Amino acid sequence: MQIKKDEVRLKILEVAADEFLKRGYENASMRIIAQKAHTTQGNIYHYFQSKEILLEEILLPTIENIECMMSKHIEGEKANLMTKEQALKEMKEIEHDFDRSKLGCFFDKKVIILLKLESSHLLARKEKILYSLTEHLQEYFNINDDSHYSEIVLNMLIECVKHVLIEHENLNDAKAEFFKFFNVLFNGIISQIR
């Protein structure tokens, strides 16, 4: 009996994640999630007390992974301004072993759900992540940000990740498409390094 309950719970999480990805958290319907999960709305609420708790169950592990990775990376890179040569070497290492790179944790469809989030108490954590990333770009690449270039660069990266993950079912195809854009963007950024 417990196995069946676990299967139902996992099916609800899977369908909800897909609906949140396609429609956004705010526009996803619990009724549609129930239909696609072959259960009832009441049964969903048996497992998850609210839509917000369902969202948390889907996103919290991803958020915690990103926050942990960023904390380690940013602490390890403080006061280490990159040279062009170091930046080029880092880019080759990222492309060679993307899954284990610092960017690997962002290549998850759950990140898209987080980035599209417009209302939830998780919004504050999303904004904190984006602020930390913007600030890190400024420091890491020594960007004088009077014109908000780091925010623009970050938004471009986010839109690119969203696009390739939504458009490509095959993760390897998505990564290949992402690197076409990333190479152009990254080369533009490192050309500004002194």
From TrEMBL:
Keywords on record: DNA-binding
Keyword Ribosomal protein on entry: no
GO molecular function terms noted in the UniProt entry: DNA binding
Listed InterPro entries: Homeodomain-like_sf, HTH-type_TetR-like_transc_reg, HTH_TetR
Keyword Transmembrane helix: no
GO biological process, alphabetically ordered: regulation of DNA-templated transcription
Residue spans binding DNA: 29-48
SUPFAM superfamilies for this protein: Homeodomain-like
Domain of life: Bacteria
Location of the HTH tetR-type domain: 6-66
PANTHER family (alphabetical): HTH-TYPE TRANSCRIPTIONAL REPRESSOR SCO4008 (PTHR30328:SF54), TRANSCRIPTIONAL REPRESSOR (PTHR30328)
Protein name per Swiss-Prot or TrEMBL: TetR family transcriptional regulator
Species in which this protein is naturally found: Murimonas intestini
